[in-house]
From TrEMBL:
Residues 30-187 form the Aminopeptidase N-like N-terminal domain. One of its GO terms (molecular function) is alanyl aminopeptidase activity. CDD domains: M1_APN. One of its GO terms (biological process) is proteolysis. Pfam families: DUF3458, DUF3458_C, Peptidase_M1, Peptidase_M1_N. The keyword Metal-binding applies. Residues 227-437 form the Peptidase M1 membrane alanine aminopeptidase domain. This is Aminopeptidase N.
Amino acid sequence: MSDFTPRYLADYRAAYFSITRVDLTFELEHQKTRVTNQMHFTRNKAHNLPLVLDGEQVTLVSVKLDGEILASTEYQVDDHSLTLAVDRDDFQLEIVTEINPADNTALEGLFKSGDAYCTQCEAEGFRRISYYLDRPDVMATFTTKVIADKRQCPHLLSNGNKIAAGNLANGKHFVQWHDPFPKPSYLFALVAGDFEVLRDQYLTMSGRDVALEIFVDKGNINKAHHAMASLKRAMAWDEQTFGLEYDLDIYMIVAVDFFNMGAMENKGLNVFNSKYVLADETSATDVDYFNVEAVIGHEYFHNWTGNRVTCRDWFQLSLKEGLTVFRDQQFSADMHSAAVTRIQNVRVLRSQQFAEDAGPMAHPIRPEKVIEMNNFYTLTVYEKGAEVIRMLHTILGKEKFRQGLDLYFSRFDGMAVTCDDFINAMADATGTDLEQFKLWYSQSGTPLLTVSEYYDEQNAQYHLTIAQSNNEQPALHIPVGIELITSEQQNDAHLLALTKAKQSWTFEGVKEKPVLALLTDFTAPVKTNFPQSDQALACIMTRADDEFCRWDAGQKLLTTYITRVMKQPQMSLPDSLYQVFESILSADTAAAFKAEQLTLPSFNELVDSIEAVNPIALLDAIETVKRSLAKQLAPLFLKQYQASAQAGYSHDGIAIGKRALKNVCLSYLVTLDNHEHLLSQQYQSANNMTDTLAALSCAAAYPSQELNTLMADFAIKWSDNTLVMDKWFALQASINNDTIFDKLSDLMAHPLFSLKNPNRARAVIAAFTQNNPRYFHCASGRGYQFLIEQLVLLNDINPQVASRLITPLIQFKSLDAKRQSMIKEQLVKLQQHDKLAKDLQEKVDAALA
Ligand code: PHE
Ligand code: ZN
């Protein structure tokens, strides 16, 4: 089987052997680490098939079967496996391998982040450490002994509890760990290095005293307090909300600067991208604070949804990720404004997941065919997966959802299971038929709801018809929340179960034609086709009980005018639009919510719903609408801007909301002539990173003489703070003028730049492609070319990072013909590159198919 052969869900077979116990010893050395792996195997059922272990990029040193060294003729090794014929049913295998952490730039398996050693095994990284049955349904108890130089690596960590430690010859020492919970290899972790530790403790609801430890680079300990507080909140929240309690005596989190993803839920030893741990008042934005709490929560929640109950195979990834994202979203909603949290979830779906679901890599939340598993850690599996869980929560209601989850844990604790197992537990516990609902797991694409209404005045009846369509696929069970708004005091709210291709409802006793607020709280991840008049939208904005619908109506109104202006750039906006904005600005609503109402739909939210779109024309239209609103309502924006200023700095919800509102007002004001002084004023007087960064990003969007001075000042102030310098690189890459391509070359040559550091690589490349669409999509094609050049370099360094960065280049379906052909030309070049990693190959092939 070649590396590029797809794997299919339909081909799943249980493993032929089990591994019950693993005893690992790591002798850590920079370029030559030796791993001794003793495994206890048992044969599953009667068969005489050979044992085939996974292994990649490891050097095999020796194999022992029940203590006897095997000759190299007694097994076969190729570049991804080791095959051994054994006739025993119960045996011990000891495999010694050598690996090279120092040269591991892919950051999978054992690698170095600065001077520290650390591992990343999900999804299939353990095979880069040793030969193993590297699949999630093979679960073993692990004992791990870590040996390293005591001065370089005073802290030696692995999963579970510390069971032994001591000094060795030559300045070395060791620590041995034991994890009593059987786990798949993807949850294995090891960390060794010199850290500062923030320590705390948590008493669980049943009285277990848990030691909490956060390991950070020296000098960063004061930036770990928010993460610690977030962890304790997450632990308490999971007890209160789901009755779920932590199960070991110690919970460790390590922050590293080199990491491909956000963080990893390894049992008892989470490894985090430092950007989701470190935060303090001066260097972190409000969004950073929010994200740290959310990711800390996410990884903690995995201890039950992912670790105690894990996935049978990687096609089931959404079993743990969709459910855990739903849990972290609920946690955030409970800690902050539920409405604003929900609005932000929906923005992510609409701007990114819908595009993925309409693009060449579209897949169901439970994919059926995979070439490179790392390519399936997607917005679909995570965010749409969370929406599917949320729909269940909506359909069943909070109590029944909880009963279903309780049954799921009691049935499957300690097991590796499937998405169907999960749904069946929810169905059985609540007596609900969820067979049709299961289709959400096998359909890709975003369903479209087409809505029509008819009011029958004589009979006081309101008729509502909803049709669903998604590429001719069978009808889904879609929960649709609605509100009927009339002049009555109370709006009439309903939860409809749309289960047919087309379905109608009649509401009786409706005394006047109601205004329909559709998809309250965004009950389903769908698109809608339901043209509503400006007046109806304005009515929803002020009268709907559901805050999401109030916000969404405003977005719809804006979308209408942005698209009109795009087709007719000279048109003037109607007074009614200005009035709507005027009432938003003067209303007495919570600042955070108001900030969301004032934020225009983004380029990415709009681009894939317009056919053959010229991205520059779309950007111009967004800009025109923004500038017109700013011009017309300048005094109000200014007033709101000034009224939202705060003397001191605090970090409560009110203060955060005010900053958001102030900065959205700033973003309008800077579109006007002679308002640049606001930027430098705000930059100079800011006492927190949110305000500083807001000033700088406005400055980058509307570059003036002063921009370079401000950027230089910022760089001097923060040159020794890695995470803040990532922000600086990202700002530079988003500068909106035609010096950008020289700027990009300068950035890549900057002494602090390295493609080997994923955060830094993303700070330049993703910031350019995402935050600088005018130049990414510029007519010369230079933006596309720039991305391809970086991908070619990254392909050899870190294919996983390369593969994530290619996204904007494969989602070209809605762009105009000229841009499509420029992009395809670039993709063909990439496709022909020899030694393209399968991560990129899979995506490029799909895009060009
Ligand atoms: N399982 C991690 C999470 O969602 C994500 C991850 C996947 C991290 C693969 C590293 C590698 O929390
Ligand atoms: Zn996760």
